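For consistency, the fold was encoded as C-alpha cells, as this record shows:
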Amino acid sequence: NYSFVSGIQNIGLGGSCIAGAPNKQGVTLSFTQRYKNIDKNTDVIVVLGGTNDYGYALPAWANPLGVYGDDTVETFFGALKVLIDSFEENYPNAKPVFVTPIYRKEQESNGIPNKNVYGFTLSDYVEAVKETCEKRNVACFDAFNEITEIDGYTYREYEVDGLHLNTEGNILLGKYIGDFLSEILD
C-alpha cells in the first residue's frame, strides 16, 4: 500500500546504459541522453541501471568505470555525475533515487567474479553507484546486496535468463523499492 504514488512515467529502455558516447549502443540511447524526457513536474526520479554498463556478455556495450569526479558521459562515474548534476539543474523539486543493479548470473563463474573488457566486476559498478550517491547525498537502494533472495542458486525463480526479471522477480524488486521509498519519502 504505497499511497505516495500518484502517477508513474517510465522512460526505461531495455538494453540501455547509464553511460556511453552518443550512438554507442545503436538505437538505444543512454540514460544521459534520455533524462530530458522526464516530466518537469516529477517528484521522484528512480534510476535503476548499471548492469549493461558492466556489459559482460556484450563487451561492445561495456563502459569504462572511470573514477569519482569524472564529468564525461563516456565513463560510468562521469555519467552518474552528469545525471545527478542534470537532475539538480532541471528538476530541482524532484528527489533522485538510484537503485543498484541486481544479481545476474554472468557476474560470476563458480563463485569467482567475472571481469568485463575493462577489468571490472559488476560489484565495482554497484560500488560506484553507492559511492557517488553517498558523496552527493542522493538516496540509493542497494538492490545488489539487499535482495538476497536472488543468487546463483535461486535466480531461475526470479529471472527469465539469469538477467531479466520474470513476474516474480519484478514483484520482489517492486516490493523492495516501494518499501525503500516509503522509508525515505515524507
Observations:
- The longest strand covers residues 44-48.
- The beta strands are 44-48, 95-99, 108-109, 112-113, 139-141.
